[in-house]
Amino acid sequence: GQLVESGGGLVQPGGSLRLSCAASGSIFRLYAVGWYRQAPENQRELVASITRGGSTNYPDFVKGRFTISRDNAKNTVYLQMNSLKPEDTAVYYCNRIPNVEPWGQGTQVTVSS
Question: What does the pLDDT look like over 32-52, one tens digit per residue?
Fold first, then answer.
């Protein structure tokens, strides 16, 4: 099923945003999902993942600041981002794990004063 990201925007350093990843299709609950980001001139990188059972994993650069969660009844995965930094500025994407093509359009997050 298709995944559609939303919830991005402009926020000041130290602020928070919650991103949503809405999935179509009834098999959503059967697979792991990751949130990724890509800043200009950078490669896409994983920022959070959640298994179908709800286990989560984060790289060190977001650990303690970002929280991924899922609501299988709503076919939605969330990314709560707190204590945002300017270096978190990027387009954020969600995708199944293993990834499938095509990727969605993503949602822009800009952290700036």
Answer: 999 999 999 999 999 999 999
